[in-house]
Design brief:
Elements lengths: L1 E9 L3 E9 L6 E11 L4 E11 L6 E7 L11 H8 L16 E2 L4 E2 L2 E2 L1 E4 L6 E10 L4 E10 L1
Antiparallel strand pairs: 1-2, 3-4, 4-11, 5-10, 6-11, 7-8, 7-11, 9-10
Length: 150
């Protein structure tokens, strides 16, 4: 982060110092490949995914977050289900368990090494990956996982 200092003279003896912070804009780079098999009778996918994640920020990263969209359909407690009910849409709320969707069978690895990961305690459609070592600015990591989606 760059810090700019601006000095302004006001009157004869008063000096006002203003600090303004400006962060350089960046966007992380994520490229992925998914190998998937569709089971149209079970309405499911079996897959494996390879993600190349490049840290374009100016800070080292110690964790990454993923949005696991299929888990938004898992139960009545998800933010999606609550929002749908609030909007008067109750199909997901009253759906039978076998009609709901989810993602599981995840086994995240970074650069072929197992890592610790967890679902957010309040939002099961958000997953946090804890990196074994910080991902430095400009560096890339290869993230892999199998997964199953209903």
């Amino acid at each position: 982060m760059r810090i700019k200092t601006l000095f302004l003279l006001a009157g004869t003896c008063n000096i006002f110092i203003f600090h303004t912070c400006s962060a350089q804009y960046f966007q992380q780079e994520v490229n992925y490949k998914i190998d998937v098999k569709l089971n149209d009778k079970r309405h499911s996918l079996s897959a494996s995914e390879t993600i190349v994640y490049k840290n374009n920020s100016q800070q080292a990263l110690t964790e990454l977050y993923f949005h696991l969209w299929p888990n938004a359909y898992k139960n009545r407690e998800t933010a999606l289900c609550k929002q749908l009910v609030k909007n008067g849409e109750t199909e997901l709320f009253f759906a039978r368990e076998d009609e709901r969707g989810f993602i599981d069978s995840l086994d995240f690895r970074i650069n072929q090494q197992p890592i610790q990961w967890m679902l957010d305690s309040q939002h099961i459609d958000i997953c946090k990956l804890i990196l074994n070592e910080p991902l430095q600015p400009g560096a890339s990591a290869i993230i892999t996982t199998p997964f199953y989606v209903k």
